[in-house]
User: Fold this.
Amino acid sequence: MSRSRGDPQKRVKTARGRTASSNRWLERQLNDPYVREAKAAGYRSRAAFKLIELDEKFGILRGAERIVDLGIAPGGWSQIAQKKRPQATIVGIDLLPTEPLDGVNDSKKLSAKKRESLFELLQSLDGFEFGIALVEPAEIDRINILQATHRAMNEALAALAQAPGHVLVDGRPVASLGQAQTALVKGDSLSYSIAAASILAKVTRDRMMVGLDREFPGYGFAANKGYGTREHLVALGRLGPCRVHRHSFAPIKPQPQLGLFPNPTTDEPVARG
Assistant:
């Protein structure tokens, strides 16, 4: 530690090679009361107090339903926006990595209403572009779910007007993409880009299931969205599978047959593997 030249009472951490401007910035950070207050309040930056003051003076957040935080890192402004407008849809954009905030996350953790709101907001952003690809159930049965997923990824990328320079993959690397990529396990909780893609995919699929509910009544697709709920399984047992059910997945997939042999004492069949 060393004393600041400007004020002998202020202390600045020293390090070899640090520029004068870096030392001035560090001095401000170490001695700024707002930095200490922000840390104590759990805010990510002192800038949170700027937004509080602006909102108190001009009411810029009053009645806001959709908020876009351009340059979200490290997230202080979005924290205040969430606190003051908890029902608002908030999207943050930045080239810098930012720790996720509550709100934009794995689509499955959001309510249907929240997903729909975020879906519309994402589509309304200037310059925002996305591609969606579908693989039919019969094709999934033929090539398996992993290969179908990789095919859909490639087709979604091909649908973009401009090819991305780098791809973020939710899960493990996909060699067939043929592009620079970063694979993130549980990426929808680590990357805003992947979280946004998750929302787009989930809302698109849910809307499709509502349409399929009208085409194939009785399975409850509008409510269960194709997942194996108790009601869906009961309907499947009663109606049998339809065109959109995958035959390579349980419970439709044929199970290994069990040999039946007469019980020597009761003549009742018993199962043997």
